Amino acid sequence: MVLVDTTVWINWLRNSQDSAVLSLDKLLEEGDAVLAPVILQEILQGAASAAALITLREQFEALPMLLPDAATYAEAGALHARCRWQGITPRSPHDCLIARLAFENKVPLLHDDRDFEYITSIEPGLLAWQDLPG
Fold first, then answer.
1. What is the Cα–Cα distance from 130 to 35, expressed in whole angstroms?
2. Mean pLDDT for all residues in the chain
3. HEC assignment per residue over the chain
4. For 17-32, what is each residue's pLDDT tens digit?
5. Rounded Cα distance, 124 and 126, in Å
6. What is residue 125's predicted lDDT score, i.e. its pLDDT?
7. Beta partners for 128?
8. Could you give the CA distance from residue 52 to residue 65 in angstroms, rounded to a whole number?
9. Which domains does the chain have, with CATH numbers?
10. What confidence tier does 129 reach under pLDDT thresholds 50, 70, 90?
11. In terms of pTM, does the model score above 0.85?
12. Contact residues for 112 (Cβ-Cβ < 8 A; gap 6+)
């Protein structure tokens, strides 16, 4: 299992051919891509129309989901605070929630977002994954 961040999904939807999207294609073939509810939200809020929203919803709700609990949110808030104390302010607090979900579930995070590199410097146990081997 690999948690796939919104940044990669957006590039995938745009038919980009970057390395993260190629890795996502492999994950999808193998059934190893997972979502988080906040990632689903970010994808859906970018829908261009009502019809696109329906299509995106059907497509993405079929994927496995890592579900946070209240403790996950608390730890994500603490992670965001620890980042700020070190002079790093992630552009979206959602990124700390996504990072925390990956950390708690011991799954790598496939992303194309520099904020996760900064977050990893504060939470070194986060398995940030740029390219899948093989």
1. 17
2. 92
3. CEEECHHHHHHHHCCCCCHHHHHHHHHHHHCCEEECHHHHHHHHHCCCCHHHHHHHHHHHHCCCECCCCHHHHHHHHHHHHHHHHCCCCCCCHHHHHHHHHHHHHCCCEECCCHHHHHHHHHCCCCCEECCCCC
4. 999 999 999 999 999 9
5. 5
6. 80
7. 109
8. 21
9. 2-129 (3.40.50.1010)
10. low
11. yes
12. 5, 7, 8, 11, 18, 20
Contact 64, 34 (CB under 8 A): yes
pLDDT of residue 68: 96
Both tokens of residue 37? 């509810």
Distances (CA, A) of 49 to 14, 41, 53, 59: 16, 15, 6, 15
Separation of alpha carbons 114 and 45, rounded Å: 22
- Cα distances from 127 to residues 1, 85, 123, in angstroms, run 12, 22, 9
Q: What is the pLDDT of residues 58-82, one digit of tens each?
A: 999 999 999 999 999 999 999 999 9
